[in-house]
Amino acid sequence: MNAIIQRELIDVFRTRKSFAMQMLLAVLFAGMVILRWPSEAQVDLSGLNAQQVFRVFGYGMLAVLILMSPAFPATSVVREKNKGTLALLFNSPIPPWRIYLGKLIGVSGFLLLLLIMSLPAATACLMMGGISLWNEMVPLYGVLGLLTIQYAILGLWVSSQSTSADGALRTTYLLILGLAILSLLPYLLFQGKDSLVTDLSWWLRSFSPIPAVMEILGHGFVGSQGIDIEPGAPGRFFIASGVLTLGLAIHSLTRFNHKLFDKARDSGAVVNEMGVGTQIVRRLYFLVDPQRRSTGILPFVNPVLIKEFRCRKFGRSHWLLRFICLCAITSLILAYIATAGTLDWGTNVIGGIMILLQAGLIVLFTPSLAAGLICGEIESQGWQLLQMTPLSARKIVVGKLLSVIWTMMLVLCATLPGYLVMGWILPEKRPQIYQVLICLIWAALFSVLVSAAISSLYKKTAAATATAYAVLSSVCIGTLFFWLFRGAPFGEQFVEAVLCINPIAAAMQVIGTPGFVNYDLLSTNGWIMGIGCSLSLAILVVQTYRLTRPN
Amino acid sequence: MSQVVVETFSLTKRYGDFTALDDLSISINKGQILGFIGPNGAGKTTTIKILVGLAKPTAGSAMIDGIDCFKKSREVKRLVGYMPDTFGSYDNMRVREYLDFFGAAFGIPWRKRGKRISEVLDVTNASYMKDLFVESLSHGMKQRIGIARTLLHDPQVLILDEPANGLDPQARIEMRELLLNLADMGKTLIVTSHILPELSRICDQVAIITKGKLRAYGSLEEIMRDVSQKRTIEIQMTCLEDGKKAEAELSNHHELVSEISLSEAESIVRFKTDVSDKKLAVILAHLIDIRLGVVQFKELQTDLEDAFLSVTREAVPATKSEPAGTAE
Question: Model ipTM?
């Protein structure tokens, strides 16, 4: 056990990156407290300053955990499995449960340390008054502590079932996003009704740490639409997450043995050699069967583009078709909500939700598609082979970028019907809708180019994917964190300056989402996006050219 | 006169203070197989990388079919098929799709590509793998597909880095036959390997390189001649007693023989000598004359492994002096 913890945890502490991360957080927390520390010899009896800082802590730590936690556990098992070192560990006298426990302590230890680092600043808030130790501080750290362990166990569970490190990272991010954010949506739609669906969605909501943290920090009423929400979200979160975490840990442990390695090679079955009946059934199910013999790459088509589509599962036609269907259904539901007026939401609220959905899709899909474009090729040793072909750097870059851009265009189409309906019903909104679409195109382009540029700077896909997720989440979602605390402790001007880099915020300002209408973000954001895209493209082109050169 | 296809002229590569390749000059004719051997870190891969345009030489030049490998690397890529020691696979791709991509990358027309893929799979006995996923192939299968990939654009020169690495005996025999067939087809091959007995069976020429310097270069016979100045003779005696007597008798002729040893378990006496066959016959006659029971009297054949060990052993203290057996 000691050897595993030594390697997984102590060695991480010794890296410069972890030291820099710890220092950054320490400075940030200290800065927050200093900002609101009483400058005069007067006591703030209401404790408003302390509450403001404490809320920032709470939401900040929650955001850090959601964004950072997949990076460590998701790659922990699969990377070792692929390197062959996991087989060596299993061949040692260490029992599997101790290997698992060692890994769990290793991956969650670093995140727990970051959490502990915020304690001195939180204690300072306590000293400022207005914060209750037992009603606020202890429950908040309890929720965040449980969340750290839950995400670490979830990441290890995904990692033990995956075949590639970047795939594991992608799935973990998807599941965490689903647990933290998407689990809130059903209750948002069905609240106030007395039905089984409402009850189920009520419990589904309990898997998300957001309602628990919001209730602890005194924001439990947000999103309730005037309906009284029964208190006790932290307790329900403890029950729901505790059960889920325990289940995942037990399932992981049952798989932490020969099952990790005992897999047969793919037989390479092709549908062309199956019976006619099977072929028909599969054709109906897939439309484009993934197991059919594909035709050769057609003339005048960039071979790198086709290669990129073929070598990732999601790029296969049947997946794209499924995705288009999902997009169509999503936008139809949104259009129905907007037109039928089932909920008392205006077009600006519906528009805001559609933009946020779009942002979620962009942030979720782009790094998984683009962050491995160059480094994935280097990692799989394919780059050397690519260098041996007469393909130019330009053709390689264009092929690789197009493979992501085509998919992202589909993602952009997800909410297009919704906007079309909106524009048809309210013609006066059309100019705003055009501007929103331009913002979303900027967001998608920026995401693709930034992720691809990051890909060209790294050697490992998993590291590039984690970095791309962190960068895009910070720009598209992280900046909204400052907006949540507009007025206090962050001034409106500061919030506007921060939101300028966020194309999603600019889109929400254009559509008139409540809380964004007072800002002027569009033109500045356009410039920032343009510069960001140009810079990322320049990095990508230069790096790719450099990599295609000898030495 | 045979046509020179691959040539290097005083090829040198330095990384800072470290000299990876020092003044390498070799030439290979069309249809020949060059065995390029050396210990790990000797400079083999550096040479190969320069030949395929993946590294820039610090000094000297390399030509393939008269084209400079660095200055016109794009043209050279069409002439060379390179199989690195790592496979370079893509996820979720079947063998046919994998080869189709490289065929398209090399600009093979769409209509001809399918036929070409079938041909190279036939040549490498890998047709049955066409629908398998690349990442699920065994090491030996990947080696075959690697060669099929290098053959796709019908290159004149094939550079294969460790093609027999990790293959089972059957696959190794098949690989040997495949390489000989390719040479018969007029391809020029540069093959690196650590499995020297395999290499000695297929190579027309051998280059031994250590610490970036060419230590021996030429045909296998030439190298043997260079490295083994003294022959090893083995005498099988009827019993140990006769073996001891033979050892004592040979010691009396120390001007003719050296390094005499007796294997007591086998009753075999071994010695080294540089005398002619006539004088060896005299030694044998003498042993028989004194009524020693000689069962067998034979010369031990020096193989590529012995030559390699001899050259690399000499190279260790010879770092500052002239290398032994340098051909050019």
Answer: 0.73
The answer to whether A297 contacts B109, with C-beta atoms less than 8 Å apart, is no
**Residue A271 counted as domain residue:** no
In this complex, do A296 and B104 lie within 8 Å of one another by their Cβ atoms?
Answer: yes
Q: In the prediction, which pLDDT does A337 show?
A: 66
Chain B within 8 Å of A112 (Cβ-Cβ)? no
Domain boundary among A241, A260, A279: A260
Mutate to test the interface with B, among A293, A307, A385 (most CBs of B within 10 A): A385
pLDDT in tens, A115-146: 888 888 788 877 777 778 888 889 999 999 99
Instruction: Look at residue B320 and tell me whether its pLDDT is greater than 50.
Output: no
Asked if B56 lies within 8 A of A269 by C-beta distance, the reply is no
Q: What is the pLDDT of residue A489?
A: 66
Q: Same topology for domains B4-226 and B229-300, yes or no?
A: no
Query: Mind listing the pLDDT tens digit for each residue in B83-135?
Result: 988 888 887 889 999 999 999 999 999 889 999 999 999 988 889 999 898 88
Q: pLDDT band at residue B236, thresholds of 50, 70 and 90?
A: very high
In a domain, A270, yes or no: no
* Cβ <8 Å between B105 and A296: no
- Shared domain for A346 and A220, answered yes or no, is no
Tell me the CATH number of domain B4-226, given options 3.90.550.10, 3.40.50.1950, 3.40.50.300, 3.40.50.150. Answer: 3.40.50.300
**CATH entry 3.30.70.100 includes domain B229-300:** yes
A381 CB neighbours in chain B (<8 A) are 84, 86-89
What are the tens digits of pLDDT across the range B277-306? 888 888 889 889 988 899 999 887 767 777
Q: Is residue A458 part of a domain?
A: yes
Residues of B in contact with A393 (CB under 8 A): none
pLDDT tens, A447-501?
999 999 999 999 888 888 888 988 998 898 888 878 877 776 677 888 899 999 9
Rounded mean pLDDT of A263-277? 79
Q: Is pLDDT above 60 for A226?
A: no
Task: Delimit the domains of chain B by residue range.
Answer: 4-226, 229-300
DSSP A134: I
- Asked if A390 lies within 8 A of B94 by C-beta distance, the reply is no
Domain range for A475: 299-548
Q: Do B53 and A164 touch (CB under 8 A)?
A: no
Asked if A294 has any chain B CB less than 8 Å from its own CB, the reply is yes
Q: Is the pTM of this model over 0.90?
A: no
Interface test with A, best of B91, B99, B128, B142 (most A CBs within 10 A): B91
